[in-house]
Structure formats: C-alpha cells, structure tokens
Amino acid sequence: MVPGFTKRYGIKMLVWFEQYGDINDAIAQEKKLKRWRRGWKKNLIERDNPHWLDLSPSLFGSGSRTAPTVRPG
Description:
This protein is mainly α. It has one domain (5-59). The chain has four helices and no strands. The chain has helices at residues 5-8, 23-34, 38-48, 56-59. The longest helix is centred in the middle third of the chain and has 12 residues, at 23-34. The chain starts with a helix and ends in a 14-residue tail after the last helix.
C-alpha cells in the first residue's frame, strides 16, 4: 500500500509480529532480532505460526486467515 521495504522486497504476508507499549523496547527488540541467524528467526515464527498463516487479516479486522502459497526457504 505504501512505498518502502515491503514493496521493494515483494513482501506479501505478515507471519509474525510482537507488540510493545514503549517504542524504545520495540526498537531494542528489532535490533536484537536483526542479529539473529535465519534459522533462529524461522523457529520463532514456527513456534507460534507453524503453518505460516498470514496474520494481517487478524490485525486489520477481517477474521479470515489464509494459508500461504509460498513458504520462504
């Protein structure tokens, strides 16, 4: 919808997210996750979302969740 990271890299689904009450905590967590290996990030996603469902509908009011058509490698 908006030009930026997701458009540039062709991101189509939201498969994991965290919410924070304080922006400084959110930024600290983001910096920590950026240092993680890909496998660790994959395990984090699969712990809570093993089927890689698109979580964005649950955030934006639509109750439907769809299964992904492509799973990152």
